[in-house]
Amino acid sequence: MSDPDVLLVGPYPPPFGGISAHVARLAHAVSADGMSVAVVNHFRTREANELIVADLARNPLRYWTVLRRLEPRVLHYHHARWSTLVAAALAVRRSTGTSVVTIHGRELEPFLESRLPGIAPLTRWALTSFDVLIAVSAEIERSLRPLGRTVSVIPAFIPADDDARLSPQANDFLNGGTNLLVAAYRLAVDQRGRLIYGLDTAIQSFTALAAARPRLRLAIFVASAPRSRAERDRLSRLIEAVDDDEVRRRIRVFHGEPLPPALRRATLYLRPTLTDGDAVSIREAIAAGVPVLASDVVARPPGVQCLPLEVPRWVTAIERRLDEGESAPVAAATGDPSDELIAIYRGLCRRSSREVAVPVP
Question: Which end of the chain has a smaller Cβ tally under 10 Å, C or N?
Fold first, then answer.
């Protein structure tokens, strides 16, 4: 295709993670608004898609070689890792177009604060190479204030406009039960070996309640399939540690399934993460009218019940919400930020050169 109005550089599903869902829905929103759009996939593309013009396999050299030969009017990079940020910044510095970067998590903070020679200045240079900086949460925006640049806060959630379907296996499991739902992008661990998405907290909390509630089930949706035997075994060991065979059978793990149709069958959504960005899945649950319990590691949308990562507190909160039934309070649905992003794109497209100040709505 000819150079598009907007080039989105980010993950594209599958797998169905929060950021990949955001990129896919944003691409459709831009196209529906009448601008041409294309996607460069952070990963290797698994399914043919006319929107995707290249994939990068998270290889910094490919970011440099691919992005510098494309000439969109607006390039929007969704941050993945430090090395690819620097490579993308090098590409946009030589581009004749304009650029946007969205930071979805707090993983850049150690680089901005690093005492290793050159790391902090290079990180600041890379970020300020983009014309518009976006953070998906107020916490992330605060971490970027030392840059001395305006950072817009725009949540990543865009309402689903697709007809994604669950597999027959997921449908059968969710049919007729009282479903607790928890989601993870992958079975990653932190430096202390703890599961970042808190699946251990969810399993232990469910197990404490399940014997007295025979209809209660726990559905674990993992977007990305395990990449190693060690990663696969992490979750298996947690489930196998459940002593009661009947309770263990009411825990099921699904890989690569879309989350929105599952949320429509959920009684309660759990988000016991050790760290977080905007948590698109929380906003998807709110949009589906599902009550949410989440860890208190970051600020959450109004109406979400926040808890410390202590299993007894989660057991009590889950039990209270289940007893409330349909009377359980649900957070008010949030708006659609794609309109704000499209306004930024249109403002950037109107620019005649990179030297003109960027009018951020």
Answer: N
